[in-house]
Amino acid sequence: MTDEKLIGEIFAYFANIGVAAINLSDSLKLGDKIHVIGSTTDFIQKVKSMQIEHKPIDKVKPGDDVGLKVDDRVRPKDKIYKVL
Prior knowledge:
two-stranded antiparallel sheet; Elongation Factor Tu (Ef-tu), domain 3; mainly beta
């Protein structure tokens, strides 16, 4: 089994643009692999695009709220894990 660390939770999803709004409890950067898990959600993807206040960024620190482009539909309260 792959090692994973809980790094955040989704608080909103914008289906029209495929972006999840996430509150992070740990750092995250472009290229990291994440695992999104919820009651009906379960997929792994690489971080390809992130924004804070509509500005593209390469990395975020704990406590930041970030918009993250996701490959599949997500729901509020879904958990975000960093694949280690």
